[in-house]
Fold this protein.
Amino acid sequence: MIQRLYIHNFRCLENFELNLKKKSSALLIGKNGSGKSTVSSALEIFQKIARGQNKTKDLLHYSDFVTGQQDQPIRLEVEALIEDQLYHYDLALELPDGFREFRIYEESLSVSGKFIFERKFGDVTFVRNSLNQNESNFVVDWHLVALPVIQEPFGKDPISIFKTWLSHMIILQPIPSLMGGESRGETLQPVKNGSDFEEWFTGLLSRYPAAYTNIHNYLKKVMPDFKDFQNELVGRDAKSMSVRFSDGKRSCQYPFSSLSDGEKCYFLCALVAAANEFYGPLFCFWDEPDSYLSLSEVSFFINFLRKVFENKGQILVTSHNPEAIRKFSENNTWLLFRKSHLEPTQARLLEDLGDIKDDIIEDLTLGDIEL
């Protein structure tokens, strides 16, 4: 999973680094505007690239530069441990004077210290490891990221392994009102706002039918009167989801769209857990997973998510909720802060700030963080 994330000259993040080594779960806290969601946006760039969206104009905009530093490249780096191999991907993009679109300044992928490919502007050097051939050189349009278009001709090569892992990253900031429970297709690559929940649900159960049991068991824990759900055809390619509840004597059935926002998040949580189990290990970033929950529901929800990723995969979340924050320890909680919108974000592990966790929670509640 992710060992290190480095982001430079991107919005409010300058020389920003998270060391996630040996952390199956971690938490980002801080005031609004401190950069938590910007970390998510940087991860989304990696995800979009792996899913084939490699035009620079679709990845970055002029406003993504740190204010006053448009003459320097934006650099994004991720180190991930995948199948016991350390993958390091580095991407730097610049917008020279007179250019209307970003161009690639540098790009490289290495595995356990050995370069698979490296690039400067449009010139790419690629090592064909599986064929034991010498390196080859070719040119890629400097407005296109090379990672999605390079591949080995045979075998399960490192590039395809890395792209698959990146494309399966789950990045969530759900809007439950967009989760209508109707679909016209299926996917294993959900979008950030959860609007394709039904396509993800359909894709997961179509590919891994055994996941039904995992999903059912979790929903039964959080909603004791939950009985089952149905995913019925309502047209040639369309399906509509409904949920049944029963107390043993009476039962009722509701369309998925009529569930509360919090109940829809239960279903989303069940899919995250099942996905990590059946086609993981996965990396998940969930922006404020407690947003739609009542206070009494937060502890179980967060504890469950952390347990899901305890031995497989990795989850990074943000929160403003004191109950959620208390479920993490000082060695896996980062405080993000900046003195003003003119200053870059800083990140500090709580364990490096001393025994102040309870004080931090109170300061976050009152809005009085001063470091």
